Amino acid sequence: MLPLPSISRCAFLAGLPLAAQTTREQPTFSVDVKVVNLLATVRGPRGELLRDLGKDEFTILENGWPQEIRYFARETDLPLTAGILIDTSLSLEKILDAERGASFRFIDRVLREGKDKIFVMQFDLGILVNQAPTDSRKLLEDALSQVGTPTQRELALQTGGGTLLYEAVMRSSRDIMAAQGNRKALIVLSDGGENGSVA
Fold first, then answer.
1. 3-class SS of residue 33
2. Rounded to 5°, angle at Cα 91 from 85 and 95
3. What are the beta bridge partners of residue 129?
4. DSSP character for 135?
5. Please, which residues bridge with residue 65 across strands?
């Protein structure tokens, strides 16, 4: 009977390291890394585009500390999404045609059909998206033709507000531009007066 307890003690001791290994867990570390895309256009002293720059010729600082540039690519001819925000409040009624004209010229010079998209929004005591992002010059020109100041009836029904400039910028950024990729720009045609935004 003597050999039996000796065997059971060995079996118990041999199993101990195995049990200790299964109860010990390796720590898990997780890091949330966010890649930030930065677009840059670099011009020389005479205004010419500098196209052959490499990643070593750029420095990115965050709170004054240099950051490593992990990914670098030279890209040209990227698509553009632009918004034309037109202040149609009564204070700008006399220059509405000039605002429209500037918008037509911008579309003619910038829009590359099949590549870029532009939307048109007017704002005064309300906000109206006259045209969602499109690459159609005709749709944009039709939308600009419909841009107008509030009618007397709309003014009589007004219960607040006046020129929702901040609200227009916030809504176009949040509701339209956030879903767009590549390059983005907002062109705001306004006297800068703000009255009534809750943004």
1. coil
2. 65
3. 121
4. -
5. 62
Residues contacting residue 86 through CB under 8 Å, at least 6 positions apart: 96, 99, 100, 103, 120, 121, 122, 123, 147, 189, 190
Q: What kind and span of H or E run contains 185?
A: strand 183-189
How is domain 80-189 classified at the CATH fold level? Rossmann fold (3.40.50)
Nearest to 33 by CA among 73, 72, 71, 74: 71
**Token pair 């935004």 is at which residue?**
197
Decide: 99 and 190 in contact? Cβ < 8 Å: no
Neighbour tally for 81: CB within 10 Å: 20
Indicate if the alpha-carbon torsion angle 97, 101, 102, 104 is positive or negative: positive
Q: What are phi and psi of 112, to 5 degrees?
A: -110, 105
Q: Which residue has the higher pLDDT, 12 or 41?
A: 41
In sequence order, what are the residues at sequence separation of 6 or more whose Cβ sits closer than 8 angstroms to the Cβ of residue 93? 149
pLDDT for 33-85, tens place per residue? 777 778 888 999 999 988 889 999 999 999 999 998 988 888 878 899 999 99
The whole-number pLDDT of residue 184 equals 93
C-alpha 162/C-alpha 146 separation (Å) is 20
> Residue ranges per domain, the chain?
80-189
Q: What is the dihedral of CA 166, 109, 103, 170, to 10 degrees?
A: -10
